[in-house]
Amino acid sequence: MESTETKPLPESAIACQQVLLEGAAVFSIQWMVMPAVHAPLLTPVALLERYLVHIRRFTLGLIRPARTETGIEFRLLGTTCALLRFNPPLRQGDDILTLAIRGGVLVQRDQCGRGELAFLAEPTPDGIKVTLRLSDYSPLLLGSSNPSPLRKWLYRMTQASIHKLVTVRFLSRLYRELTGNRCVQVVKVQVQSGEEI
For the segment 87-112, what is each residue's pLDDT rounded down to a tens digit? Predict the structure, then answer.
């Protein structure tokens, strides 16, 4: 069950949690509080656009986000091979934008259409809480709803680590570009109960 209780973070820190839920679905969340003065630049739509640019830049063009008639794809190099396919962005009020996972090479075939990547920008007393949340995702590397210890280890060492690094670097870059300051630490938090990855 998701917990709404979280402790205040140190200034310029990034909160992070990655867990395997029942049925081997992945939940991964990272957030950071930005100064409220930057709120106009931190809409969920703006966050998505910045994130797509960041993916291409961070992977040196190896992964190239592409918009299609059916949504957004994370394509490998200059090919049409989609590592991940998402439905078109869906706004949920002013604070949330979601991309429902539709498939791709990195998704278990029988779990296509499950999971989402969400971008949140929520006003708080301390500023704007910018959150990236991956939920209910079924990675191909885990193989099934009952993955072996080896598959869990492989996923943890590769895809989970890369996703965390990409997201933390995204928030860190965003904070630096907006404030001129650097992120000082990554703090583990507990939002969901599950097996840590």
Answer: 999 999 889 999 999 999 999 988 88
pLDDT tens per residue across span 34-45 = 999 999 999 999
Query: Which residues partner with 136 through β-bridges?
Result: none
Contacts 24+ apart (CB under 8 A), 104-109: 104/73, 104/74, 105/76, 105/81, 105/140, 106/139, 106/140, 106/141, 106/159, 107/137, 107/138, 107/139, 107/140, 108/138, 108/139, 108/140, 108/142, 108/143, 108/144, 109/140
Q: Say what the pLDDT of residue 9 is.
A: 78
Amino acid occupying residue 104: G
Q: Look at residue 33 and give its three-state secondary structure.
A: strand
Helix (H, G, I), strand (E, B) or coil at 155: helix
Report the alpha-carbon distance of residue 48 to residue 50 in Å, rounded: 5
Cα angle value 71/104/25 (rounded, 5°):
105
Query: Considering just the CA atoms, what is the radius of gyration of the chain in Å?
Result: 16
pLDDT in tens, 44-98: 999 999 999 999 999 999 999 999 999 999 999 889 999 999 999 999 988 999 9
Q: Would you state the structure tokens that stand for residue 179, as one six-digit string?
A: 């404030």
